[in-house]
Amino acid sequence: MAYTAKVGPSILSTDLSQLARECERMMECGADYLHLDVMDGHFVPNITFGHPMVQCLRNAVGPHPFFDMHMMVSRPEQWVTPMAAAGANQYTFHLEASTNPGHLIRLIRESGMKVGLAIKPGTTVEELAPWAGQIDMALVMTVEPGFGGQAFMEDMMPKVSWLRSQFPSLDIEVDGGVGPDSIHRCAEAGANMIVSGSALVSSDDPRSVIALLRDVVLEAIQKRSLDR
Ligand SMILES: O=C(CO)[C@H](O)[C@H](O)COP(=O)(O)O
Predict the structure, then answer these.
(1) CA 29 to CA 10: how far, in whole Å?
(2) DSSP for 116-128?
(3) CA distance 2 to 108
(4) CA pair distance 50, 42, nearest whole angstrom
(5) Cβ contact 38:50 at 8 Å
(6) Beta bridge partners of 40
(7) Domain spans of the chain, in order of start
(8) Reported CATH class of domain 6-227
(9) What separation in Å is there between the alpha carbon of 7 and the centre of ligand 1?
(10) d(CA 2, CA 7)
(11) How would residue 2 be classed by pLDDT, with cut points 50, 70 and 90?
(12) Which of ligand 1's atoms lies nearest the C-alpha of 176?
């Protein structure tokens, strides 16, 4: 089994006026990576920030934190080169926003970033499957993208289970309403990259929440490997 448990705080619920400090705080608390939500006001009804902010963040936090860019934008091909130049490590685009996923995957790889492919709740996992052999990570959204603090959609878990059964080594990320109350369902289904926003970032003890989320996933991975 090539994959392991990783926890990536979503910065959407942080104090955005202190974003670099918040990213550092999450890394100090044991985060494995940072999930940076980019929204353009078209693909989703919300706006966050673009590559100039990512460049500033990279300058502030240094070369090590892994930036997983969740690109909730309507023209994902437009931002590949600027995001790579700004210091992004992984470019996760939405299948629903792309007219030519194969071309976009190649573009992202040529720019030196890893490739993530996301699907919204209304998109079937069979639509993602043809690309699964070419990507580093599949993101199964467990809320409608756009806002933090929404309720976890448990009915997305069959998508995760199916992906895990078909692509045993693939990194599978879940995002939306994930925290101590929902992590067991995500882990049992086979997710290994865990994005958590409000439940983690607003906690009084984010270090313990990160450790708990990671431990639950690690336990499920170990159980799955023993069952094989
Ligand atoms: O992509 C997102 C919303 O589109 C966020 O990453 C996600 O919602 C995380 O926040 P929370 O854990 O509070 O739901």
Answers:
(1) 14
(2) EEEE-TTS-HHHH
(3) 22
(4) 14
(5) yes
(6) 47
(7) 6-227
(8) alpha beta
(9) 13
(10) 16
(11) confident
(12) 14
Token duo for residue 20: 């670099």
Kindly give the distance from the C-alpha atom of residue 227 to the centroid of ligand 1, in angstroms, as a whole number. 32
Q: List, for residues 70-86, the tens digit of each pLDDT value.
A: 999 999 999 999 999 99
Q: Which of 37, 142, 181, 203 to mutate to test the pocket of ligand 1 (most atoms within 8 A of CB)?
A: 37
Neighbours of 199 (CB within 10 A): 23
Please tell me if the CB atom of residue 9 comes closer than 6 angstroms to any atom of ligand 1.
no
Residue 150 CA to residue 58 CA, distance in Å, equals 28
The structure tokens listed for 114 are 């890893």
What is the value of ipTM here, to two decimals?
A: 0.97
Rounded to whole angstroms, the Cα distance separating 97 from 123 reads: 12
* pLDDT > 70 fraction of the chain, expressed in percent and rounded: 100
What is this structure's pTM?
Answer: 0.97
